[in-house]
């Protein structure tokens, strides 16, 4: 993705995370104070809200709106 080339890979920390295997995320801000993010969990089970925003399912991914 040319517009958002930075991916983040995160492993769960001793069960403190909602995901079980790993998380891929892509920060995709739309302005100075917007922190929207695309998130992928291989479990594909996302909550209705996370990281301070509401979740929109897009295929196997979750788009978290700030």
Annotate the secondary structure layout.
Elements: E1 7-10, E2 23-27, E3 37-40, E4 49-50, E5 53-58, E6 61-65
Antiparallel strand pairs: 1-2, 2-3, 3-6, 4-5, 5-6
What descriptors fit this protein?
mainly beta, six-stranded antiparallel sheet, globular
Strand order of the largest sheet: 1-2-3-6-5-4
By secondary-structure content and strand pairing, the structural class works out as mainly beta
Spans of at least 5 consecutive residues whose pLDDT stays below 50 are none
- Count of beta strands: 6
Q: Indicate the overall shape.
A: globular
Count of all domains: 1
Distance from N terminus to C terminus (CA atoms, Å) equals 21 Å
Number of helices: 0
**Average pLDDT:** 86
- What string gives the helices and strands in order? EEEEEE
What does this structure look like?
The protein is mostly beta strands and 66 residues long. The chain has one domain (7-65). Strands 1-2-3-6-5-4 form a 6-stranded antiparallel sheet, with no helix packed on it. The mean pLDDT is 86. The chain is globular, with a radius of gyration of 12 Å. The two termini are 21 Å apart. It has strands at residues 7-10, 23-27, 37-40, 49-50, 53-58, 61-65. It is built from no helices and 6 strands.
What's a concise summary of this model?
This protein has 66 residues and is mainly beta. It has no helices and six strands.
């Amino acid at each position: 993705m040319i517009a958002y080339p930075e991916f983040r890979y995160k492993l769960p920390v001793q069960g403190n995370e909602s995901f079980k295997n790993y998380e891929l995320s892509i920060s995709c801000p739309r302005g100075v104070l917007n922190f929207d993010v695309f998130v992928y969990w291989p479990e594909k089970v996302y909550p209705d809200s996370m990281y301070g925003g509401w979740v929109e399912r897009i295929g196997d991914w979750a788009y978290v709106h700030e």
